[in-house]
Amino acid sequence: MPHWWQSAVIYQIYPRSFQDSNGDGIGDLPGIISRLDHLVELGVDAVWISPIYPSPMADFGYDVADYQNIDPLFGSLTDFEALVAGLHRRDLKLILDFVPNHTSTEHEWFRASRASRQDPKRDWYIWRDGGPNGEPPNNWLSEFGGPAWSWDEVTQQFYYHAFLADQPDLNWRNPEVQAAMFDVMRFWLARGVDGFRVDAIHLLIESEALLDNPPNPAWHAGKSPARRLLRVHTADQPETHSMIGAMRRVADEFSDRVLIGEVSMPIERLMNYYGEALQGFHLPFNFHLLSTPWQASAIAALIRQYEAALPPGGWPNWVLGNHDRSRLLSRVGGIAQARLAAMLLLTLRGTPTIYYGEEIGMGDVQIPPECVQDPWERNVPGLGLGRDPCRTPMCWTSRPGVGFTDGVPWLPVGERFAQFNVADERKDPASFLSLYRSLLRLRRGERALSLGTYRERWADSRSLVYERIDGARRLLVALNFSDQAYAVQELDGPLRVILSTHVGRGKQSRWPVVLEAHEGIVAEL
Ligand code: NOJ
Fold it and tell me: Are 381 and 371 in contact, with CB atoms under 8 Å apart?
């Protein structure tokens, strides 16, 4: 019997940007609750919400000041309970973001830790003396620019932070930290949460010797300054896996919960995150579609490589967008390509994650300098590292506040909403939303798509053709990545086209099948 998270489609909500209910320009939990029927209509199965805990919002919630409450900006624990109930009533699952690597400097643990060297919580964070000339303990760099060590005047030591200085790293070598964080997991699991997306897990532990990271020969100006060094001593340390195993045991104290890891790693190393005997993450996020050239043979090769690398019984997953990356539409070059990408994502073998707004064809929104919010863009301006463009408000209507807020939205809404918004797209059979709904309906109704095997039929520089198979049921997916018509190579036996990215095609039931530019089809064989 497969687990729910194998056949599920996950939908990521960035809570600041989904729906505002009180006119402050920032999305909140009552807002999300008021939009649950959109998710039902869309046809997804689970919702992952980026952090909603009390936070000074230096990194928009990824700087947690209290793991066991809700930030008043988003609502209250009572709203949270209503959200869980509303989702479960609709047969939707809830996945929360768990941020174990670091807290906010405002967390009471860090306040205690920085108060004196003798404080019982001193060792909950990573404190070190500087060098003889007052320099940081080593050359480690913060992901968001500058050194990864900040000086603390009061106790005259440096503390380590993989991200902002406002996000001190917890010391996971300390068993008290482990126990406290496992209790945080239990707190939410006991409140009905169906699983966690675990933040920045590959950075959880650093080498104890604090050796300098070596230079990265592939770095060049224009890339993130943090990539000047290879993260040999700060990422993917072997001890991380025993911590993930322990997190998994906590999740397993409850029935049928899922653990998803945010792991940015090459495929071979990513596979270790399934854990020994699959006792690690159920789903270590597979981000490789985000960085593979948008070209049929490159994508075919990626699928082949990923499928071949999976450990026995390991369940695949695919991601095309999230709150850290440029939106799909802006990456792949246009509407037709983004529609084709949707068909790819929702017909591949493995759990797909849809980023909010992709279902209506939202693209990156250009952010004028005076509106920049993301601390990364502020620290390292001008390199295009900022993540505001992909975090703009969900467009519900074509009215000025886009149906998101009655106030001033925290980020600009861009221009596309006039055409690309939920209200208008619901009525238009040729819209993104209609395509996503059709794809999701098909996936839900077809075991071959949700749980069947994957078999590549052929791939060349222009097209990718594969089958999804469940017993006698065979579905053919043919994707034309090129801007010219493409004749699908004829297969034995009859076929019937059941869905196309192009609305005009109809239910063709005969060979030959000639795909239009950027067209994708699903056909029964
Ligand atoms: C990864 C999250 O996705 C990103 O948004 C955040 O800034 C960092 N981790 C730090 O928590």
Answer: no
Q: CB of 294 within 8 A of CB of 16?
A: no
Pocket of ligand 1 (CB under 6 A): 59, 62, 99, 163, 199-200, 262, 323-324
CA of 298 to the centre of ligand 1 (A): 28
Cα–Cα dist 75/499, whole Å: 41
Exposure string for 272-303, b = 16+ CB within 10 A, e = fewer: bbbbeeeebbbbbbbbbbbeeeeebeebbebb
As a whole number of Å, the end-to-end CA separation of the chain is 26
Q: For 82, phi and psi rounded to 5 degrees?
A: -65, -35
Predicted structure pTM score: 0.98
pLDDT in tens, the chain (525 residues): 899 999 999 999 999 999 999 999 999 999 999 999 999 999 999 999 999 999 999 999 999 999 999 999 999 999 999 999 999 999 999 999 999 999 999 999 999 999 999 999 999 999 999 999 999 999 999 999 999 999 999 999 999 999 999 999 999 999 999 999 999 999 999 999 999 999 999 999 999 999 999 999 999 999 999 999 999 999 999 999 999 999 999 999 999 999 999 999 999 999 999 999 999 999 999 999 999 999 999 999 999 999 999 999 999 999 999 999 999 999 998 999 999 999 999 999 999 999 999 999 999 999 999 999 999 999 999 999 999 999 999 999 999 899 999 999 999 999 999 999 999 999 999 999 999 999 999 999 999 999 999 999 999 999 999 999 999 999 999 999 999 999 999 988 899 999 999 998 877 888 999 999 999 999 999
Nearest CA to ligand 1 atom 3: 324
Whole-angstrom Cα distance, residue 224 to residue 141?
A: 11
Instruction: Tell me, in angstroms, the distance from the centre of ligand 1 to residue 71's CA.
Output: 18
Query: What distance in Å separates the CA atoms of residue 518 and residue 514, rounded to the nearest whole number?
Result: 11
**Is the CB of residue 510 less than 8 Å from the CB of residue 470?**
no
